[in-house]
Amino acid sequence: MNREEIYDFIGTLAIALYSQKISISLSALNSILADKGVEYGNNRGLGSGVSAAWRHWEKKDPVIHHAIAFTFRDKDGNIPWE
Q1: pLDDT (tens digit, 9 = 90+) per residue, 23-45?
Q2: Does the global pTM surpass 0.70?
Q3: Which of 30, 41, 46, 72 is most exposed, with minimal Cβ within 10 Å?
């Protein structure tokens, strides 16, 4: 997967989870991405990846952009790029 495909996948996953009022940790997201063969090395790098996906979706689809912000959380339950 290239970066755009990863960002699209993160957005698609975010809207599916958000529609069911589910949030997941970056570790869980990293495990899902590992199953797709695109594991990030650590949660800090993944936080940057989620932030990039969030920006990627900003003009493309504001609903998915919003879902990304409220679906993926760090170990303390915060938005990962704060």
Answers
A1: 999 999 999 999 999 878 777 78
A2: yes
A3: 41
